[in-house]
Design brief:
The protein is built from 19 helices and 16 strands. The protein is α/β, with parallel strands linked by helices. Strands 3-4-7-2-8 form a five-stranded parallel beta sheet, sandwiched between helices. A four-stranded mixed beta sheet has the order 13-15-14-16. A hairpin with a 7-residue loop joins strand 14 and strand 15. Helix 2 runs antiparallel to helix 3. The longest helix has 25 residues. It is globular.
C-alpha cells in the first residue's frame, strides 16, 4: 500500500484517487489541499470535544514547476467545487494577509456582514497563499501577526484597536489556511525563532512532486462526488462534537508516545515543528470521521490521520535539514545565543539595543532577545541614562573570560546605571528610526 493510500479516507479519499489518472499533481498534495479546504468549510458546525476548531492548515513544499503545487490545488478545487463547498471557496477565499490588524479586520468584517442572516453569524475564511514566500517577508514586519495567527488556529479570541473603528474582536476565529512554497524559500523565510515560538507547528507541510507527465491534449476529469456531498451536508446541518471511540483513544495515546519519543531524539529546533503533531492527528481524524457521518472518531480514521501527519513530520525534517546545507556543504544552524554573540562581535563586543536588534530582525524579536540574554552568562546588560527625559536605553556587552572569572553579572534595569553627560560639541550621530529601541 502506497503512502497516499494509507492516508486517503472516505469519499474524499475516493474522489482524489479517481481524479489522479488525469492530473499531474502529487496525490498527497491534492489530499493536503482538500483537507484544508474541506475542514475550513465545515468548521462553523464541527468542533472537537475540547471545543477547539477542526481546521487543518497545510503547506505544499515543492520545486517551482516540478512540484505541481498549483496542479494539486486546482485538482482539489475541481473536486470540491462539484459540491456546495465550491460556493464557500469562491465567497470566502482570501490572500495577502500580512499583518495582525488585517487578519482581525478580515474575520470581523465577515462576521458583521452575516449578522441577522439565516443560520446566524458566519466568520469562516480560507486563506490561500500560492506565493507564500512573498507574504512571509511582509509578515515579519508585523510583531502582532505571529501571535494572532497562532491564536486563530487555537480558536482563541483575537482583537485589535483602531482609531477609526475602535475595538475589533473575534471571539472564535474560524480561519482555514493553505499555502505553497519552494524548499529553497522555506530555508530563507521560515525563521528558526518563529519555529521555536510555535508558529509553524500549527502547519502541516508536505513535500510534493509531479506524479506523471500527461500529453498536451489531456483534459482533467472530475469524478462523481455524490458521497462527499452527502457527508458535507451531514457535517453542516447541525452542530457536531467529535470524540474518540475507546479503541481510537487508545491508539491516539500510543501515537502521542511515539511523537514524544521522536521529539526527544531531535534537536530543539527540529522538534519544535512537531510539538502539536498529536493534536494534528486529532483534528485530521475528526475531519475524516465526518465523512463516515458520525461524531465518533474511529481507529481507522486515526490511522489514516497518523499516516498524513507522520508524512508531514518526515517532510519537515527534510526541509529543515536541507535548509541547513549550502551547496552540499553542511551549514550548522546557529542558536539564538550564537546569533547574539556574532552581532556583538561585529560591533566590537558592545552594541546598543537597537543596533543588536536590527541585524536579528526576522530571526528574533525584542522579547526573544531579552529572554535569551537573561540566560547568557557572557553578556552584560547596562542601563544607560543620558540625562534627558524619556526611557533609558540599554547597552549589551560581550564579557571576556576574564570578566566572567571575576564574577561580573548582568545588571537589571534600575541596577547599574551610567550617567552620560552631553559633550560641549557632540559629533553628529545618525538617529535610529527603528521603533524597537528598547529591549527591556
Amino acid at each position: 500500500m502506497s503512502t497516499f493510500e494509507q492516508m486517503a479516507y472516505g469519499p474524499m479519499g475516493e474522489a482524489v484517487k479517481a481524479a489522479m489518472p488525469t492530473s499531474e499533481a502529487d496525490p498527497i498534495g491534492v489530499w493536503a489541499a482538500s483537507l484544508s479546504l474541506y475542514s475550513s468549510a465545515i468548521s462553523r458546525h464541527v468542533r472537537m470535544d475540547n471545543r477547539r476548531p477542526v481546521v487543518v492548515w497545510t503547506v505544499l513544499a515543492g520545486r517551482s514547476a516540478l512540484g505541481r503545487k498549483g496542479y494539486a490545488l486546482n485538482t482539489s478545487t475541481a473536486i470540491l467545487s462539484k459540491t456546495k463547498i465550491g460556493g464557500f471557496i469562491h465567497a470566502r477565499k482570501r490572500n495577502g494577509i500580512a499583518n495582525g490588524p488585517t487578519l482581525v479586520d478580515t474575520l470581523s468584517t465577515l462576521e458583521l456582514e452575516t449578522v441577522g442572516q439565516d443560520g446566524g453569524i458566519d466568520g469562516r475564511a480560507i486563506v490561500i497563499e500560492e506565493e507564500w514566500a512573498a507574504v512571509l517577508k511582509d509578515q515579519k514586519k508585523c510583531s502582532k501577526f505571529s501571535t494572532m495567527f497562532r491564536l486563530a488556529w487555537d480558536g482563541k479570541p483575537i482583537s485589535n484597536r483602531t482609531k477609526k473603528d475602535g475595538l475589533q474582536s473575534v471571539a472564535q476565529p474560524l480561519l482555514g489556511f493553505h499555502a505553497h512554497i519552494t524548499p529553497g524559500e522555506w530555508g530563507k523565510y521560515v525563521s528558526s525563532s518563529e519555529a521555536l515560538g510555535g508558529s509553524y507547528n500549527r502547519l502541516l507541510p508536505v513535500l510534493v512532486e509531479r506524479s506523471k507527465m500527461l500529453p498536451y491534449n489531456n483534459r482533467p476529469q472530475v469524478p462523481d462526488t455524490t458521497a462527499l456531498q452527502e457527508a458535507f451536508a451531514w457535517a453542516t446541518e447541525e452542530a457536531r462534537v467529535m470524540s474518540f471511540t475507546p479503541e481510537a483513544g487508545e491508539r491516539y495515546d500510543e501515537i502521542r508516545a511515539e511523537v514524544e519519543a521522536k521529539m526527544a531524539e531531535l534537536p530543539e529546533l527540529l522538534a519544535s515543528y512537531m510539538e502539536r503533531a498529536h493534536e494534528q492527528v486529532n483534528r485530521v481524524a475528526a475531519v475524516l470521521a465526518t465523512m463516515d457521518m458520525t461524531e465518533d472518531i474511529s481507529k481507522a480514521a486515526v490511522e489514516a490521520a497518523w499516516a498524513f501527519v507522520s508524512y508531514s513530520m518526515a517532510s519537515v525534517e527534510k526541509l529543515v535539514k536541507d535548509a541547513a546545507t549550502d551547496g552540499g556543504s553542511p551549514k550548522p544552524m546557529k542558536t539564538p545565543e550564537e546569533l547574539i554573540r556574532d552581532v556583538l562581535k561585529r560591533h566590537g563586543g558592545e552594541a546598543k539595543a537597537s543596533d543588536l536588534l536590527r541585524p536579528l530582525w526576522g530571526k528574533m524579536n525584542a522579547a526573544g532577545i531579552k529572554d535569551t540574554v537573561a540566560d547568557m552568562d557572557d553578556v552584560e546588560v547596562t542601563e544607560v541614562k543620558t540625562g534627558r527625559r524619556g526611557a533609558p536605553s540599554y547597552v549589551y556587552r560581550l564579557l571576556s573570560n576574564e570578566d566572567q572569572d571575576q564574577g561580573k553579572k548582568k545588571s537589571e534595569p534600575g541596577g547599574k546605571v551610567i550617567e552620560l553627560k552631553p559633550k560641549p560639541k557632540p559629533e553628529p550621530v545618525p538617529v535610529s528610526t527603528n521603533p524597537f529601541v528598547s529591549l527591556l
